[in-house]
Every structure is written in structure tokens, then in C-alpha cells.
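Escalation from tier 1.

The customer reports that the assembly of two entities below gives different C-alpha cells on two consecutive runs. Tier 1 could not reproduce it. I'm attaching the input and our single run for tier 2 to review.
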Amino acid sequence: MPLDRKIAYVDLTTGEIDIKPIPLAMRKKYLGGRGIDMYVLYNHIKPGIDPLGPDNVACISAGILVGTPSSASGRTHVAAKSPLTGFIGSTNMGGFFAPEMRFAGIDHLVITGKSEKPVYLWIHDGEIEIRDASKLWGQGVHKTQELVRQELNDREIQILTIGQGGENLVRYANVMTVLKNAGGRTGMGAVLGSKNLKCVAARGTMDVKIAHPEEALEYNQRLVKSITSAKVSITQGKLGTPFIWGTTNSFGGVRTRNFQTNQFEYADAIEPEAIDEHIIGWAGCFGCQVHCRGRYKIPSGEYKGVYGEGPEYTAQGAFCGEPACDSMEALLTGNHLVNDYGIDVLETGSMIAWAMELYEEGILTLEDTDGIDLKFGNEKALIEMVHKIAFREGLGDILAEGPLRAAQKIGKGSEKYLIHVKGMSNLHSDERGQPALALNIAVSSRGSDHLRGRPAIDLYGLPEAVLREVYSQPVKYDGPLTSHWKDYEGKAWQVRWQETCYAAVDCTGICKYHTIFLGPNFPNFEEWSKLLYLNCGLELTPKEIWDVGERCYNIERLFNIREGLTRELDNIVDRYYDEPTKGGVPAARGITIDRKKFQKMLDEYYEHHGWDKDGVPTKETLTSLGLENEPSNML
Amino acid sequence: MEDKKTTAERTAAGRSSGKFRCHNCMTRIAPPAGAKQVKCENCGFEWRVSWLGPTFPRIRGPVWDVNRRLTEEALKARENKE
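Tier 1 run:
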């Protein structure tokens, strides 16, 4: 059964490895993936520790449905205290790593301590070894995987690794697998780097026995049909996620020139259809039929002919919209470099765009930039800064520290140009016109984050009846819901609903693109209830899965409060309130977020979660979720 | 296991084909087959069209000059009204 997979504790200081079963009671409360990881972090991390010190705990895990016939069930989750924000660090990535780790008998890795020299972990059919990685240290993401496969003489090995960014403790360094699958946003690569852990390799031949195999296959076929026939999936399979950037840019919902405009006009050269001309094929992650990973060759320049995967929405924001650069070469090259160095594309692009605005404002000068003319649109400067960040050279060393620390070092009022929440840069979208999206990034548990609670379907102008059908399951909701993205009413519930939905799906290990993230007719709690029963033999109602998501979100909240989170930090920067939008269609122009209405939404949001006015979970809420005795040290 | 239609399956019944929504006014537009550009009958904004399949159009991007002009006119009208 999938539930027989183990949790392994690896102490890199002592070299001790302890492999244990996961109690069924914990599975029912947290399923797996993000849920169990968050429980482990809350129970094992002492408040106030240095995220880049040996006391930090890193979790690498598979969701409970990973490796089963369930569609797109290949997600890997990585968690630790974040060196970028000081709050929850958590990232979720596609590819093939988690299924392979599960086939090797392990669902959850809990890594503590620090090795004296670079090492890597080798997991194979229930065994875990700590091996020397001195030959791998200094290598990029792509070369590292090649070298490990050569050393272990098996091409089928899956590897989760850091690049030079993680080794150099860039506070937003990623963990990576394959060419471009990135566990980004909260600096998990830097945490592994701080432990001298270069990578984890996995190869398994252990069966995952399915509880009701025939019915599971049949039901999965039904879901696959529903997902692959959706217009949004067809578009994604033809153009990848850049279609979202293209669509959003066409009405004026992207962030460009740091935050100065919300539309990149006449950017035809880098539209999704233009990128498509360079795509030589499409790849999918484990068990996925959508195949949204484009494969390309860089067309020109120093890296001409190099293969890459993507680019994704965030790469378009990072290397096109934000730096106001319409060069295909810069887009594809920049995307390749961040993936090979293992640094977060969104944070990298945001930090460079911020530096560009500072340069244009005269806060940074040629002296500060080592002679680089850091003006918007300068594609050479853009690529040069990617190298400098990954290797912490010159200004890159400051930008590698992330928004708040970098602003502190630069001073001169540079902080007011930052576009961030809790020290993490915002997505390259402009949420001034969409209060629901603004609330989402303000309250997300891992800092500014569109993947933890964004009601993306709010932009579709769906009829209220459809919204009510979606947002009234599996718990009753009869409050307001409105179709227009500019409204404030009912949006707090949508954000809270999405947070619980995404938390639950992150515990299953299914890709968010196979959930309601992109379309109202995508699977959610009802489907997951069936999948859990058919694949794992676990009987949970949709409401019980909702509670798993809610439990996960609340334990994250408890972790963050313990690390100093207050209501004041659940906020967006002043520019959202003070600077009206300048681009896009008339409906998107001249808009700011209304402070009073935003605070009212925040009150409603807290109330929907069962939190008090300061955003602290009430005793009743914790008791109803079985969290009243945390930390309970069950794992 | 209960096997009634799920929320996702019920909402899928309303899915449209051959159309997209105007990015300015949200009106549904059905561009003629193969058209490279289309004008919204409701607001006059024009969009470049790409075809993902013979019956599957999507907005590739704005017809920049037209939409820029219409936006400037709309903003001027809004200003005068205020």
C-alpha cells in the first residue's frame, strides 16, 4: 500500500540515519507532502534559530498520492525555515524526483545538522547512504545530475540538487530537478547549501500497491478526459504558462519596470506565440498529460545552441516585463542560467528590476554597479546581473540577500521601491486592480505568493452561480460572491477557500494545474476523496480533506506567529495604495487598492479562518482541528 | 463510494467553444474562422487572434495602436465627466 512508505531522519553532523514508519493517525491528519512537513517543522525547529545554521531542519517529501496512477501526481515538496523571510520555507516542484524516492521506499526525509564536507544522499530500495560530493561542489544543476548518474552508473536515477546559487547561500536559491523543475521562492537551496548537502539521488524498484487498481485507473481516465479537454489545458499544452503572461499583459495586469507600469506595450517579440517558434518539443512531469514544459534551443548569443526548458510565466516577467526587455535571446538565456545556477527566477528578476529603478532614480550609480549601465531594457546588463547574483559578485552580492537585507545595505530610501510582502518579492503581476489577488499575496503563509491562495479564476468574470457552485463546497458558504475582479465583496472567502484547497492538494502531491487554480471545472475536494480511497484505501470525506488543508494552513500560521508574524506584516507595500496604475485598458487604469476596504477584507479573512483580529488562531479553531496540544512530537 | 457528478463535472457543462472574452469589456467574441484580427462589437477594442485549433481561437494580444487610441479617448471622456 502507498501508506507503508517511511520517514527517514538524517543527521548530517553525526551521520546517523533513522528510518521509521509513519503512523496512520498522522496520515489521516496531514496526508503527506506539505502537511507532514509542516507538522515536522513546527515540532522540530526551535524558535529564533538561524535558517542557515545547523539547527534548521530540511524536509524533502512526496505527497500521499505520488507515484500512483492519479493524474499529475509527481510533486516533490521541500520545507525548512526560510533564510529569505525568516518564516515558513516551503516549495513544491514537478518532475520525477518524489515518485522515484517513493519507489525507493521513502516518503519523507528530515535532514538536520551540517556535514563537515560536501556530501550527497543516495536513496535506493529502502537504504540511505551519505556519500562524498567534493567532485560535485561548484557544478551547476545540469552537470551535477550527469555526474551523479555516471558515478552510480544508472541513467534512471532522479536527482534533486542545488546549483552554485545554493552553495553561495543566495537567500533565494532553489532546489532543482531535471532541466528546469524548480523548488523556488523561499531559499530552500540555500538551506541545503548551508548543510553542505549538494543533492539527493533516488532510485527505486519497490512496488506501490494500489488499493483498488482497476477502479483507480478507470476513475483516473475520467479525470484525465475532463482535464485535457479544458480549454485552459489545451492552451497550456500548446504555449506553456507564458500564455498567462500574454493574456494578462494584453489588458494591463502585469508588473513592468519594477512597479512603474502594468503593461508592456508593443511587446509582440516575446509573446507566447513568438516563444513557440523556438520550441522544439513539449515534455510533461510524472503522470501528466498536459505537457506544459516547452523545450528550446537558445537561438543566438554566447549560449547559442544550449538546450533549456520553459520559459514559464515568471521567466517572462523576470526577463521581459520587469526589466522592459523584449529580447528573445535574453529571455531564453536568462531562463537557462537561473535554472542551471539554481536561483529563483522570480526573485532574481525582481531584484534586478528593483536595482534598475534605483539606478534610474540615481540611488545606485555606475560605481555601485561595477560600471554596468543598469537601465531598463539593457539586456546585456540583465544577463550580467544574473551571473553576479549567483556568484555573489559586486552588486550581485547585495542583491543575493533578498529585498529587505539588500535595501538595508543600500539605504538612501531604496526600501520604498521594493515590491514585496514579508521580505519576498511579488509575482510579476499587478494586483492593484484585483483586490482578491492583493489580499492573497498579503496573507500568504510563505510571504508574497500567488501559489498559496490566488483565486486566479476571479479574472474570468464567471457568473455568480458558477462561483457559488465552486466556493460552497465542501463547506457551506452563503455570503457575498461577485463576478468582477475589481470588487472587494466576497473576495476574502475566495482567498481563504483557495488557501485551504491548495494546502490540501499540496498534501496529496498533485500538481496545482490539475486543480481549480486554472479553471472552475477542474478537480478538487470531491475528486481527491475518491482518489485517496481508490489508491490508498483511505476513507476521507471532502470535508475531512478540507480539514487537512485547514490544519496545514493553521500550523503554518502558528509557526510564523512563533517567529514574529503580526497583523501589520499581512500587508502590501504603500505603492499599491498610493500609485495609480498607468497602463492597460480603461478598466485597469488609474486604480489603487483602497486602504479601508483592504483592512475590512483582512478582518473578514481572519474571521473566515477562525482567527482573532490580530490573525492568531483562536483556541476553538485549534481545538476543532486537533491542534490544541501542538507541538505533540508524534513524528 | 458515491458516484454522483462532482462540482467540476457540473460546471464543465457550461464550457463554451469558438469564443473568447474581450479583455476590455468581457463580452464574448466569436471570431470568424481563421481571422487574424477581431473587433469587439460592444466596446470597439481590437485584438490579434491566434488559433490553437480550427475552432479554438485565443487573444494573441492587442492591436496596440487602435486600443491605445480608444483608451486615451475613454480616459479623456472619464476626465471630462469628473
